[in-house]
Amino acid sequence: MLGYQTGLSALGNAILLGLAGLLISLSWHAVFWLYGLLVIVAGGVAWFVPEPTVPSTTTNHARTEKTQLPRHQWTLLGLTFITYLLIWGVQLKLPSYFSARHFGNAATINLTLAAMNIGGLLAGLTFGYLYRYLHRFTLTLGYAGAAISVLVLWLASNATVAIGAAVFFNFIYSYTGPYLVFTSNTGLDTIQVNVLSSYLTIATIISAFFAPLVWNSLGQLGPQTLTANVLIWIMLILGGLALITGSHHPRKEV
Fold first, then answer.
1. What is the average pLDDT value for the chain, to the nearest integer?
2. With contact defined as beta carbons under 8 Å apart, do 110 and 23 qualify?
3. DSSP state letters, 50-95
4. Which of 29, 60, 150, 169 is a plausible cystine mate for 235, CB 3.0–4.6 Å?
């Protein structure tokens, strides 16, 4: 279900990016009418989504004990923050990279971002199948494949190769999110899962806030332009994460 959720989220992003590309030709103000779709979503949630069943606890002390997260979950929260920080870095710098390399106009970049989300859809639909065979190495595959795709993107000499690398990046990297959420929730009480879900949401939000600050600062360090330096840093960090997760032996998953 986590894979399907990731895939459908990517599909929604792809559709809305496509619609935004059409509306921007009319007026940049018209793009904001897309948020009107939230009214339909809110109505669907209010009408069809039931309230979850929350088990009652006997004492306040028991509730407090259950809401405390193990140390392992805090490590995964930190890894989630870094994981999303990396993908924001690619998506933030992709337009300027395409522009600097003369790989197309704004429409090309918009279609590339939409196609990247189609890659995310495919990853989401196949996550459950892949996890049954790779287990913890699903995360390693996501980091290693993303590192290779960023390398290809950095070395790309034409728009076709660059677009292919960007789409593959979003495809292979989309295996990391569902894995991190699934592993973080394993073995937790229902109340702990609710608390962890809030922290995971906060981690993704603050990673988006810090992404421009972090990557614009790191981009100053390197032999090339700011955008190219950012891709180098992202590639190195992804490679390091692939090595760490591939060699680390976590506790046995339930």
1. 87
2. no
3. PPPP----S-HHHHHHHHSPPHHHHHHHHHHHHHHHHHHHHHHHHH
4. 150
Residue 133 tokens read as 């065979």
- Amino acid identity of 166? A
pTM: predicted TM-score of the whole model, two decimal places: 0.82
The rounded radius of gyration (Å) of the Cα atoms in the chain is 20
Q: Give the sign of the dihedral formed by CA 159, CA 162, CA 165, CA 171.
A: negative
Token match 């559709």: residue? 15
pLDDT of residue 65: 52
Which residue, among 125, 120, 130, 247, has the nearest Cα to 172 in the 3D structure? 120
pLDDT tens digit sequence for 59-97: 544 454 557 888 889 999 999 999 999 999 998 999 899
Stretch 227-245: mean pLDDT = 96
List of domains in the chain: 2-49+71-246 (1.20.1250.20)
What torsion, rounded to 10 degrees, do the Cα atoms 96, 106, 147, 8 define? 140
Nearest of 241, 253, 250, 252 to residue 80 by alpha carbon = 241
